[in-house]
Design goal:
Elements lengths: L2 H33 L1 H21 L5 H25 L21 E2 L2 E2 L1 H15 L20 H19 L8 E5 L6 H14 L4 E5 H15 L13 H4 L2 E7 L6 H16 L4 E5 L3 H7 L2 H10 E5 L5 H12 L1
Parallel strand pairs: 3-6, 3-7, 4-5, 5-6
Antiparallel strand pairs: 1-2
Helix pairs in contact: 1-2, 1-4, 2-3, 4-6, 5-6, 9-11
The structure holds zinc ion (ZN).
Length: 328
């Protein structure tokens, strides 16, 4: 899903709740009306009073007093209606609309502000579209353990965690920096970059998280179909890799590097730089390896426009394995 699609679907979900709330209300009205004939009568009476208030509002003349009189009449009928429900063993609000979200009556908006219920739906769709579902849910800043890093490594990693936490908390697509996380396997790059992604999504931004290999295969498949990188040329929605608020490319260097993947990477980094959309890259390659693998035009982009964050320590995954073995 692209960003606009995720938002559209979230709105549809909230709208569907509204439709269902009203349909359920109508079913209850029909049920009570069938069981209690005098309820049907009082309900009709109430339905007639509503439009009268509207008519009086546009009536001019002494409308204020008129409106107040009708409003009181409406209130009295509503009270009688509620009492009738209770008398017949129903809950007093049985014949009222029960919205899933009372705050916005399932419209998704409170005034001109987006309601929390719609925000939650958007975040859920963003999370689903982000590619983060494939990663474990507990990769957050709070679950990142510094105990596996010693001495100087620990100081470096403490700084990295603090930096990335602040990056996520203050993320703004138009002004946040591009980052490249450099370091050997098992030093927590994936954990911390997915923690960044999660937090940035929670804050309402559209994030795409993809490993380098997956990213290039998607472009490869697209080129196969259309002979182009750009999805928009084939009338599809805008490319989510180019368009997202934050793109995280995990494990750059693990893909099969060829002329296609190199020009693809250049295209992508360039498009995002032009649009002022930040990218976070993580890689196991050292800067010399990066230089020998990718062309100068990419490297000048990466080193010129990205803040490097060096990860250090000894493989945390291996330490964890050793620890569990020695404990058992
Ligand atoms: Zn709401």
């Amino acid at each position: 899903m692209t960003k606009s699609e995720s938002i559209r679907r979230a709105k549809e979900t909230v709208e569907a709740r509204r439709v269902e709330s009203i349909a359920a209300y109508e079913r209850r009205i029909a049920e009570v009306s069938a069981a209690v004939p005098e309820f049907a009568e009082i309900d009709r009476e109430l339905q007639k009073t509503g439009p009268k208030i509207v008519a009086a509002s546009f009536g001019g003349g002494d409308s204020k007093a008129e409106i107040e009189a009708i409003r009181q009449e409406y209130e009295q009928i509503a009270v009688r209606r509620r009492e009738m429900l209770v008398r017949h063993g129903y809950a007093p609000d049985y014949a009222s609309i029960r919205y899933s979200c009372e705050k916005c009556s399932d419209t998704g908006y409170v005034g001109i502000d987006i309601c929390d219920c719609l925000k939650r739906e958007i975040v859920r769709n963003f999370l689903e579209s982000s590619g983060l579902y494939s990663l474990t849910k507990n990769q957050t800043f709070d679950t990142f353990c510094l105990d596996y890093y010693e001495k100087n490594d620990r100081i470096v990693m403490e700084q990295n965690v603090a930096f990335l936490r602040d990056y996520a908390e203050s993320f703004d697509p138009s002004s946040s920096a591009n980052l490249i996380l450099i370091g050997a396997t098992g030093l927590g790059k994936t954990h911390l970059s997915s923690a960044v992604a999660r937090r940035v999504i929670e804050r309402g931004f559209f994030v795409v998280y993809e490993c380098a290999q997956g990213l290039f295969s998607e472009y490869e498949a697209r080129r196969f179909r259309t002979n182009s990188y750009s999805a928009s040329e084939e009338g599809e929605d805008i490319d989510r890799f180019v368009d997202c608020d934050l793109l995280i490319i995990d494990d750059l260097g693990t893909e099969i590097t060829n002329r296609f993947s190199i020009s693809c990477l250049y295209y992508l980094l360039n498009q995002r730089l032009i649009r002022h959309r930040p990218t976070v890259i993580s890689t196991n390659l050292r800067s010399t390896e990066l230089r020998s693998r990718y062309e100068d035009r990419i490297m000048s982009r990466v080193f010129g426009e990205f803040i490097p964050l060096q990860f250090s320590g000894s493989d945390v995954r291996m330490q964890k394995v050793k620890k569990t073995k020695s404990e058992s």
